[in-house]
Amino acid sequence: MAMEQSELRRRPWASQADSEVLSEAELEEIPRAFSSPVALPHPSRCSCAAAKSLLFRFLPILSWLPRYPVRDWLLGDIVSGFSVGIMHLPQVTLLPSLLCLGLAYALLAGVPPVTGLYSSFYPVFLYFLFGTSRHISVGPFAVISVMIGSVTGSLMPDSNFMDPVNGTNETVLNEARRDSARVELVATLTILVGVFQMALGMLQFGFVVTYLSEPLVRGYTTAAAVQVLVSQLKYVFGVEVAEQSGPLSMFAVSRICTKLPQTNVGALVTSLIAMAAILAVKLLSAKFASKLPMPIPIELITIIVSTGISYGAGLKAKFGISVVGDIPSGMKPPVAPNVSYFGQVVGNAFAIAVVGYAICISLGKIFALKHGYKVNSNQELIALGICNFVGGFFQCFSISCSMSRTLVQETTGGNSQVAGVIASLVILVTILKIGQLFQDLPKAILAAIIIVNLKGMFKQFTDIRTLWRSNRIDLLIWLVTFVATLLLNLDMGLGVSVAFALLTVIFRTQMPRYSILGQVSNTDIYRDVGEYNKEIPGVKIFRSSATVYFANAELYAEALKEKSGINVDYLIGRKKKALKKQKKQQEKDKKEEAKKKKVHLCQMFPSGLEPQASSTPKAFNEPTLESLGLKKPDLHSLILDFTPINFVDTVCIKILKNIFRDFQEIEVDVFLVGCHGKEASKLGRSKAVDPPFDSKSSLQEDVSCRTEIPICPPLEQSQVLASGFTFLCLLFSSPHHTSLSC
Asked: What CA–CA distance (Å, rounded) separates 9 from 14?
């Protein structure tokens, strides 16, 4: 006995398997969960514990920093921090991304280069306090930068800042005035992005990115990469091209082609040499990655060398090569936003908020899964919102994160956001002391760095081949997203892409797969008869692969009638004609009979006295198909498999009523199988049948009385509905097979 109890303790499911099986009537006697009020602690009550929990959730650093394993993690975080500050990885890099590409991404955003350095410092430090991911590296990102650039190009084009030259009809661009106006606009946009992200996070709307599927995001970033490439061509060729943004702005490449005869050969040669050198070193670094202690910082080397050559050879003065220009040193005080811009950039701000968060949370979850911890999606949204909101006051532009920076931080030993803080200190030193040394850096070099680091995004074109083989609906989403983003610009392209992706879901529910199920031999499993061609004689089991609701309810009824193999409408029409003909014949016979009876009565009662007619009506039995001379269908029972149905609406209920009515007309019983509890209750409350659910009736007795289908016990039972026809709910033991044996 003791051994058996020990075995049961080791196998807890054994006692459950041997437990008593209750009948449906006995189950009804058991009180439902929470049927009586239970005193539960109110989650919103104020207490020290609740306040502490809220504080720790809002400031995750308070929970992990006191437990920070200094001996195990500090050295790795220091090495990783410096590596993230000065190293790169193919795709986008860090002091190429937090320094060099901080400058380059400012170029994409259409703001002064120092703004990129600010955006690489403040947000990183703030994310250290509020973020929940230990490995992602936040900062400027190409897609976000080009989205910002489209805003600055449309609202603050160069043509608005042209000053006339004294004594001539020519005009010259006032870069100082333009940069000042654009910084104010971008800072306001960034603050609004932060407001959106914080509001969504506090409202627990972290799930909003679930509407951005992977094909959509990859098609979107690929189109953004093409736009980035086009935007950098003017620096590669050294030509002046008027900025254009908004729909059809991609056709700016045609204007660049018309300016090719004016190409600055010095800028073109400089950019080509830089691209060749960077690409060659990247390939070598990837090939010998296992032998190198860290990737070669080719972007940093390229910037240092090109800046030195530009300064020593006077490339700007001799060859007219455009350079970065003044990079002020030191930090700037916070500046209030210009709220008058809010109405103009609200749509762009929401798009940037969603895209930036989608990229961050997807990368955060990837590395959290890899290292065995969880990322709070709503807190991540709040953290990014704080980074953008506070950063906007300090002339930052909106930030996100990139895979390559995150990989640098992880592969070089980073275990926490301490590595990000150390990287931000490298940027702080650059802002305070080193930034002004890059004033002679050619813009063609920055364009070359950006173009080469787009290689990873351009590899996403291979998704077309992969999706063609795996899922062509996802391929269509990818292509529509790509084309819409190219033609309509990044903000409108995102809206069109999300709308189209949601429409594909609706279309797929409108055109589900309808099938007749057959029984697999010697099993109680039911599959499509196309695979297992063994139908139950006289019974058809109909299944839809999608839920039935207003968008596809009519199609469901049509497919059911088609799959049943019975021309239901034709048979009902013939029955009505036969009934009408029979009724006419009965009326005619009745009149003739009454006439004969009257003559007979007159002969029997010449005085005119007639006996009173009986007031008791004769019982009326509705004629059957056979009595009407119509062929009865071979089908006597139709089972609707409702296992895939998640919900029912009023249109679905109406269609079900019509289905039951039509098949009852042709003497076919209809049953519902696999109807979930809540939906079964909803059907009962809707008075789809009368009387409502009878929870005390015996399922086996009811089915045995009303159908010719033998039911083999035991069965998992539900409730029975009956009103001239039987409305039956059975529960399948799993979504893939039934427990019904016929």
From this structure: 9
Taking CA atoms, 685 is separated from 620, 653, 674, 679, in Å, by 32, 11, 18, 10
Q: Which residues pair with 226 in a beta bridge?
A: none
pLDDT tens, position by position, 149-181: 888 888 888 888 888 877 677 778 788 888 889
* Pick from 483, 396, 408, 499: nearest CA to 144: 396
Rg (CA), the chain: 38
Instruction: Write out pLDDT tens, residues 406-452.
Output: 776 776 667 777 887 887 787 787 777 776 777 888 888 888 887 88
Residue 84 to residue 422: CA distance in whole angstroms: 9
Distance of alpha carbon 103 from its chain centroid, rounded? 33
Residues in the chain: 742
- Work out the angle between the directed axes of helices 175-202 and 342-371 (0-180°, nearest 10): 60
- Mean pLDDT of all residues in 248-265: 80
* Residue 638, H or E segment: strand 637-641
Give the closest residue to 399 by CA, choosing from 192, 123, 667.
Answer: 123
Amino acid at 488: L
In terms of phi and psi (left: phi > 0; alpha: psi -120 to 50; beta: otherwise), the region of 372 is: left
The one-character DSSP state at 536 is P
Element (H or E) spanning 641, and its range? strand 637-641
Share of the chain above pLDDT 70, in %: 75
Distances (CA, A) of 79 to 87, 117, 350: 11, 21, 37
Nearest in space to 358 (alpha carbons), one of 564, 136, 163: 136
Query: What pLDDT is attached to residue 245?
Result: 62
CB 730 within 8 A of CB 674: yes
The first and second tokens of residue 147, run together, are: 């989205």
| pLDDT band at 143; cut points 50, 70, 90 | confident
β-sheet with 637-641: strand ranges across: 526-528, 514-519, 539-544, 637-641, 669-673, 726-730, 720-722
Of 3.40.50.1000, 1.20.120.140, 3.30.750.24, 1.20.1250.20, the CATH number of 514-566+633-705 is 3.30.750.24
* All structural domains of the chain with their residue ranges: 24-506, 514-566+633-705
Contact of 619 with 523, CB cutoff 8 Å: no
Whether 720 shows a pLDDT value over 50: the answer reads no
Give the mean pLDDT of the chain: 76
